[in-house]
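Hi, here's the filled form for the chain we discussed.

Project: internal
Contact: R.S.
Residues: 155
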Amino acid sequence: MECTVTWTGHAGGQSAMGFIAETGSGHILAMDGAPDPAKPGHSGLNLAPRPMETVLAGTGGCTAYDVVLILKRGRHAVEGCSVKLSSERADTDPKVFTRIHMHFTVKGRNLPASAVERAIAMSHDKYCSASIMLAKTAAITTSFEVIEVGAAASA
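And the returned structure, exactly as it came back:
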């Protein structure tokens, strides 16, 4: 896996802390820092997500992918899945994640809560490279809800 990250340099005549990442699969991702009036030229312009937000988002994508795939492989009628991640970071450098909570909302027809719980556990314990890596510094907790999607109305 490869990725090239390039500093975008100046924006609007001022030095900025924006970056563009080009992934090995050919996709582009913009990142930027938070604005800080006390540090002109050494802060972001708030034009894109922070790099650590992209780490958190990637982790959410990794685990949601696993959960959907595990449920589909189990022949469950999953129709939607989202995960809301909330996190805390260390106060001092390196400001690693110290706590991450993932709340999954899974939609489907006749989805057993036990199957959803198992899929989340399998992702967390075995398959999601991102969350397993972050668990080296962060206490990761999970919760979930299952939303029943009714059968389509017949005419």
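Let me know if anything looks off before we file it.
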